[in-house]
């Protein structure tokens, strides 16, 4: 699952990910995303010159 704010969810690199909208809570959207789709989008971004800007590149887990 992904919790994403409504502003980021409008960006092409997020809105292009296949997802199931589970709900809206204030400015936040709750999406069900298959890990394969998320990984494919990450690979696509890297292949198009995007670089991660965080130090720990592990997926956040709650």
Walkthrough of the structure:
The chain is built from 2 helices and 3 strands. With 62 residues, it is of the alpha+beta class. The protein has one domain.
Order of SSEs: EHEEH
Shape: globular
What low-confidence regions span 5 or more consecutive residues with pLDDT below 50?
none
**Overall pLDDT metric:** 86
Report how far apart the termini are. 10 Å
Number-wise, the strands total 3
Total number of helices: 2
Helix content: 25-40%
Domain module tally: 1
Order of adjacent strands in the largest pleated sheet: 1-3-2
What portion of residues belong to β-strands?
Answer: 15-25%
* Rg (C-alpha, Å): 12 Å
In brief:
This protein has 62 residues and is of the alpha+beta class. It has one domain (2-47). The chain has helices spanning 12-15, 35-47; strands at 2-5, 20-25, 28-32.
Layout of helices and strands:
Elements: E1 2-5, H1 12-15, E2 20-25, E3 28-32, H2 35-47
Keywords summarizing the entry:
alpha+beta, 3-stranded antiparallel beta sheet, 3 strands, 27% helix, 62 residues, 2 helices
